[in-house]
């Protein structure tokens, strides 16, 4: 890191109780998946299926809990709010794999692009297209429901801008913390700030995906953490997020561990896909 770069704020998080174990467990699971014989020949197929399952999971956490086969079958996602949510999840998940080069230099530009993809269609129909692709301004409400009953008050636009800038600086300068810690912080910070007027959950989960892709932990995108978050359930997701929002050491550690479990569950899904491909059943 450059001598004039800010101190790494994530270093202490990596030392919290239980975090090292979560990091090691995730690395072991991901390495096992990458060592699967199917991954040597059919990684692109596994990655495509992982993206589909990740998008389905992210949509479920945003209130559109569709069966995987329904997501796979559908081609029209403009019929109603749930369909639009699934379509938005598919778009931002696909964009995550294309955004790495821009993310490394200007993460905030990618976040704006993700929100544009997620909210552009519905927002335009609702007559609020001018709120798409930029952080909310004073007086602009957030239309998606709070994830937790004890969610802290939403910070105002000036505080959002300051914290987004700090996040941007962190990501551009890099961190010595493990990829899981960085991904969990990006995810939790965006969910806590809710910088956009809508679709913050989809954007936050896609951002976590980008960090995992770009860090080298999951460069092929075959560990869909979004699917794991959905499998643990909305209530567990909410409780863990409340821990992050609290800012306490115990709460932050629990959120990081929760994100680690989500990655491991995503890995388990992809291992099952590999086994199915090996048997010729998929």
Automatic annotation (TrEMBL):
<feature type="domain" description="Fido">
    <location>
        <begin position="106"/>
        <end position="258"/>
    </location>
</feature>
<dbReference type="InterPro" id="IPR003812">
    <property type="entry name" value="Fido"/>
</dbReference>
<protein>
    <recommendedName>
        <fullName>Fido domain-containing protein</fullName>
    </recommendedName>
</protein>
<dbReference type="InterPro" id="IPR036597">
    <property type="entry name" value="Fido-like_dom_sf"/>
</dbReference>
């Amino acid at each position: 890191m450059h001598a004039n770069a800010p101190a790494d704020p994530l270093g202490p998080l990596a030392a919290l109780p239980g975090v090292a174990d979560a990091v090691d467990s995730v690395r072991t699971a991901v390495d096992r998946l990458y060592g699967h014989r199917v991954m040597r020949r059919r990684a692109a197929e596994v990655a495509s299926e992982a993206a589909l399952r990740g998008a389905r999971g992210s949509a479920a956490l945003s209130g559109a809990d569709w069966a995987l086969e329904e997501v796979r079958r559908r081609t029209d996602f403009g019929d109603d709010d749930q369909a639009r949510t699934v379509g938005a999840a598919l778009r931002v998940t696909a964009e995550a794999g294309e955004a790495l080069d821009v993310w490394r230099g200007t993460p905030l530009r990618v976040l704006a692009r993700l929100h544009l993809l997620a909210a552009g269609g519905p927002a335009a129909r609702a007559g609020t297209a001018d709120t798409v692709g930029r952080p909310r301004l004073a007086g602009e409400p957030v239309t998606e429901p709070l994830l937790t009953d004890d969610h802290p008050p939403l910070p105002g636009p000036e505080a959002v801008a300051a914290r987004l800038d700090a996040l941007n600086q962190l990501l551009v300068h890099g961190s010595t913390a493990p990829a899981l810690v960085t991904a969990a912080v990006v995810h939790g910070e965006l969910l806590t700030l809710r910088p956009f007027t809508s679709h913050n959950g989809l954007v936050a989960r896609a951002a976590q995906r980008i960090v995992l892709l770009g860090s080298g932990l999951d460069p092929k995108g075959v560990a869909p953490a979004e699917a794991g978050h959905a499998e643990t359930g909305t209530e567990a997701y909410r409780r863990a997020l409340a821990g992050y929002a609290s800012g306490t050491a115990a709460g932050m550690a629990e959120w990081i561990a929760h994100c680690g479990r989500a990655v491991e569950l995503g890995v388990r899904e992809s291992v099952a896909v590999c086994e199915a491909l090996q048997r010729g059943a998929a």
